[in-house]
Amino acid sequence: MEYETPLFFHVMEYAAQADRDVVDMVSGNPDWEPPEALRDGLREYADFDPDRFQYPPSAGLRELREEIAARRGVDVEQVVITNGAGEANYLAMARALERDRGREILLTDPVYSYYPGKTTMLGGTQSYVAADEEGQLDPADVRAAASEETAAIVANSPNNPTGAVYPEETIRELVAIAEEYDAILVSDEVYDHYDLSGRFTSALRFDSDHRIVTNAFSKSLAITGFRVGYAVFPPHLVENARSRHMLVNVAGSRPAQYAVLRALRETGPDYYERNRALLADRVETFTDALDAAGAEYTTPQGAFYVMARFDGYPGTLENVEKLVDEAGVAGMPGEAFGDSRRDWLRFALVTPRVEEAADRLASYFE
Fold first, then answer.
1. Which of 242, 266, 290 marks a domain boundary?
2. CATH number of 330's domain
3. I need a labelling partner for 360 at 20 to 30 A (CA). Which of 46, 102, 211, 219 fits?
4. What are residue 243's DSSP bridge partners?
5. Which residues form the Aminotransferase class I/classII large domain (predicted)?
6. Whether residues 279 and 214 fall in one domain
7. Domain ranges, residue 333
């Protein structure tokens, strides 16, 4: 079996080796500060006794799992702490396929490229349901694509790469479709704190044995390097997920989990509100420049990303490299996200140089 390395790594390496200054708009690494309580937690941890530097419980620190369970309205035994949302999605998709209800994973197009890669790695087959021009998913299209071979439906809201936020009715219907076909809805909600529309709905709102919710603190606390995520499983699916997690990772980072726990307990809503406001300002700045450049673009309702299409400049890897060399801006090729956005480019707004990047693009394409 051959695995394809995601294009993210190629583009980041190409930009890093460029002979000129480049504004990095490739990956979703927040450039703002994590909560002060998180730093305090790390400092405190450094002085703990040696036993606190040993393995934590494989499923995660009990106190952190209890905090998450209380916030999400689930039983603590349903929560598994993972190595970021990446492992959470891997475990969720694995559990869906292990039920032997089929080998098909329904994905959206455009798609976050790690989902197809995980599907291949787990021995599943990919099928795609096209989102509309704004990135919204029509449940009727999902139902038409589903079959007895469908093991899982993977949904991401707020969405990477389109920035779409699915309304409550869409999430309700996706849960219902999973139930109808005895499949699992895998709801990746890692950008839930970056809902700019005010209409984000978690799949946990709908009680069902046919949905697994995944999340992480990578984005919400601006700590992508800490790799602390989690998955919420139905009770009958959690035990094997714990076993797979233990066999793959043994356990996660104990200091990182402790620092996240302290941050959750001591960080007020104003922290998240400031970051959403910062992101909203960047969206306005960047899309104004895209208007000046005559580009077509998606206005994100959430997450960190803007997709843009420039006339006569398709979103190929070759054109992304050309943009690095000639404009000094690094984005992602649309072809990395599926067939439907091959003419587009994706830019991550997690850099303080958004305005500078916008000016460079406007000048380059004018």
1. 266
2. 3.90.1150.10
3. 219
4. none
5. 21-360
6. no
7. 7-34+269-365
Quick one: DSSP state of residue 313?
B
CA distances from 200 to 158, 165, 168, 205, 328 (A): 7, 6, 7, 11, 35
Residue 246 sits in the same domain as residue 278: no
2 occurs within a structural domain: no
For the stretch 214-239, pLDDT in tens is 999 999 999 999 999 999 999 999 99
| Overall domain count for the chain | 2
**Regions of the chain where pLDDT drops below 70:** 1-4
Distance CA 183, CA 150 (A): 6
Side-chain-side CA neighbours of residue 245 (13 Å): 30
Residues 71 and 168 in one domain: yes
Would residue 187 be called left, alpha or beta, if left means φ above 0 and alpha means ψ between -120 and 50 degrees?
Answer: beta
Does pTM top 0.85 for this prediction?
A: yes
Alpha-carbon gap, residue 276 to 302, rounded angstroms: 9
Q: Which of 25, 23, 20 lies closest to 8, judged by CA?
A: 25
Supply φ then ψ for residue 130, to 5 degrees: -75, 135
pLDDT digits (tens, 9 = 90+) for 180-220: 999 999 999 999 999 999 999 999 999 999 999 999 999 99
CA quadruple 94, 99, 105, 106: dihedral sign: negative
Query: How far apart are alpha carbons 329 and 357 in whole angstroms?
Result: 6
